[in-house]
Specification:
By secondary structure, the protein is an alpha+beta fold. The chain has helices at residues 14-19, 124-139, 162-172, 221-229, 231-249, 284-291, 302-312, 363-380; strands spanning 4-8, 25-30, 35-45, 57-61, 79-90, 93-98, 117-120, 145-156, 177-183, 186-192, 195-200, 203-214, 253-257, 261-264, 268-278, 299-300, 323-328, 333-337, 341-345, 348-357. Helix 3 crosses helix 8 (363-380).
Length: 381
Amino acid sequence: MKYQKMQIKLDSPLTFLKYFKNEENFFFYNPLKKEFILGAKRLKALTLEESLKDYPYIFSSRTFFNSIRDEKWSGIGNENIAFEYYLVEKQGKQTLYYIKDFVEIENMKVEVCRHSFRCEMDDYNSWEQLFSAAHNAILNKELNKVVISREIKIKCDGSINTESILQNLLKQNANSFIFSYCKDGKNFLGATPEILIQKEKNNVLSYAIAGTVLRSDKEDEHEKKRLLIDTKNRHEHQIVIDSIVNSMKNFTDELVVDETKILVLKNLYHLQTCIHGKNTNRTLLQWVKLMHPTPALGGNPVNKALELIKDHEKHERGLYAAPIGIIDENGDGIFVVGIRSALIEKNIVYAYSGCGIVDKSNCESEYIETTNKLKTIIESL
């Protein structure tokens, strides 16, 4: 089996999604490389043993937990999928990959629209109960940190234009990875700043991202400096660094922990530390299994944190905060974590956000932080 390829010129890669809107498809934008990778029309799901050599890219996703209870998440995730068609945009050049039949994709205008919607945000009492369970476990020395989350239901008055949402996410989140996965009438999409693991030849890299403050309308150097020295946020961030280092150190040479910096997003500042090293004998999917979930998404110690989340969160995480990624024919690629995200089904948007709880956390402050994180999805509507 061999893919053919042809140079094409679309005004927007989103036109590709519009053309294949009735097919299973994915969209992935990497802001570090300024590249788009899209796929449409499922060809096959690959097992872990199958070679990737025959396929330009594989789209892969994992659910946060191995089991799914909520029907709306059924059938989504835990697959490595090859598609019949791919569109790749690198350095301004677009290449269409196809197996047999070339398709003529005409330029179609990607309309940016304003959805009329209502948010159900009356969940503070539930949040208090969830926070108390997490905080008490930390105060009782059962946990060092646990990440708890919210699910917000947004009802739109009419049909939802996912291309418009993605266009807004791209425009409003310059430093984030923009992703979308559509299957069986459901669409999981978002704008995440966080790399779980990246592999290029024998180089592997991960990000620790934890510690957050609200950003004002203008970039505030004073606020950045305060975040860098804030005791509570640095403690939360260090837990994530230590855990990632502990996971990577036994499988890498020359492990390096870079200086902690400030990641600037549209509504928030985060503490961010890059951790990287060299490894030749583990596949990217093996790295994903090793790394997920970091304490930035689950907690520490990980198993006890996951038990608490399972016992006390009332919603299903599904693909939220879970690995989503692209693997090329050489086995290289990148997995991000599906945060600042939402599941769209018919005219309902289920938006998700979470935050890390440590001993100095405050219930109301953390709730406000999750509300600010929800703006990524709400503003895209």
